[in-house]
Amino acid sequence: MKRKVEIAVISDTHLGTYGCKAKELLRYLQSIDPNVLILNGDFIDIWQFKKSYFPESHLEIIKYILNLSLTNCQVIYLTGNHDEFLRKFSPMTFGKIQLADKYIFELDGKKAWVFHGDVFDSSVQHSKWIAKLGGIGYDYLIRLNNLTNWILGKLGREKYSFSKKIKNNIKKAVKFIGDFEQTASELAIENKFDYVICGHIHQPQIRKVTTTKGSCTYLNSGDWIENLTALEYNNKTWEIYAFEDDLLIDLMNQIDQKPQQTPDQYKEIEAFFK
Fold first, then answer.
1. C-beta separation of 11 from 42 below 8 A
2. What is the three-class DSSP state of 220?
3. What's the pLDDT at 110?
4. What distances in angstroms separate CA 196 from CA 88, 105, 112, one per listed residue?
5. Which CA distances in Å does 55 have to 18, 45, 70, 236?
6. How far, in Å, CA of 116 to CA of 86, rounded?
7. Which residue(s) pair with 191 in the sheet?
8. Rounded to an integer, what distance in angstroms lies between the CA atom of residue 186 and that of residue 181?
9. Structure confidence by residue, pLDDT tens digits, 3-35
10. How far is residue 133's CA from residue 36's CA, in Å, rounded to a whole number?
């Protein structure tokens, strides 16, 4: 049974890279019935696009979204820095798929402004070769992290995120995220928007920002490499969807359906929370 969702926003899926969690993303997309699906940048990683690596699971995502656009779902594809090649073709509409660099719409009497957010990243705007080199390094870091987590899983140990640890411990990275969110929010307030929705920094977030000029709600959909998150809008409310929460619900349901819980089943629950 699919969940009805008025609006779903995903970003930074980075199809075509080793870090992309395409199977998990497809499972999420198949679980919802959205009126509007917004792909907020870096959907396909053209920076690292190689014919030697675009597996079937990544192609299935594209096929599924194309088929989704043939239903009553409107698909909004917004360009990011990793798929900036498409900016030379935007704005463009084909069927129920709209290609653009930004998207502005009204939502229950409130104005929403959606864009990827790389415009605030000086490394992308002024030193693209550094940004691209960093993107390659990030992809290799994710590959190493996947191998490490596979080993940790076999040993029954907790998974570990190298990039999250680095971001949380480097003051400049933390400051960049804070500055990014504040800058986007201040611009939204100045332009009389109630919501500003971004991607780019792989940091899922919903928070109210208030300045002397007013207030708005800043939202970020996160990514499908590490956080596996999306934004969902229903009944005048925004929420962050987290794929791991669904995994926990599935695990609990499976155990509830069994007549007796064994020690091994309890260990499954304990391992999830460790």
1. yes
2. strand
3. 96
4. 24, 11, 6
5. 10, 13, 24, 38
6. 13
7. none
8. 9
9. 999 999 999 999 988 888 999 999 999 999 999
10. 34
Question: Of 31, 69, 9, 61, which is closest to residue 223 (Cα–Cα)?
Answer: 9
Cβ neighbours, 10 Å, residue 7: 21
End-to-end CA distance of the chain: 30
Q: Check whether 174 has a pLDDT greater than 80.
A: no
Identify the helix (H) or strand (E) that includes residue 70: none
Q: Taking the model in full, what pTM does it have? A: 0.73
- Under DSSP, the state recorded for 48 is G
Q: Edge-to-edge strand order for the sheet containing 3-10?
A: 92-94, 97-100, 74-78, 32-40, 3-10, 229-234, 237-242
Give the distance from CA 224 to its chain's centroid. Answer: 5
For residue 65, give the amino acid letter: I
Structure token pair of residue 70: 């043939």
CB half-sphere exposure, 4, CA atoms < 13 A: 3
Q: Do the strands 195-198 and 214-220 form a parallel or antiparallel pair, or are they unpaired?
A: parallel
CA atoms within 13 A on the CB side of 184: 32
Q: Residue 119: its pLDDT value, please?
A: 80
The answer to whether the beta carbons of residues 50 and 86 sit under 8 Å apart is: no
Helix/strand/coil (H, E, C) string of 91-150? Answer: CEEECCEEEECEEEEEECCEEEEEECCHHHCHHHHHCHHHHHHHHHHHHHHHHHHHHHHH
What is the side-by-side strand order in the sheet with 205-211? Answer: 102-107, 110-115, 195-198, 214-220, 205-211
Beta strands in the chain (DSSP E): 3-10, 32-40, 74-78, 92-94, 97-100, 102-107, 110-115, 195-198, 205-211, 214-220, 229-234, 237-242
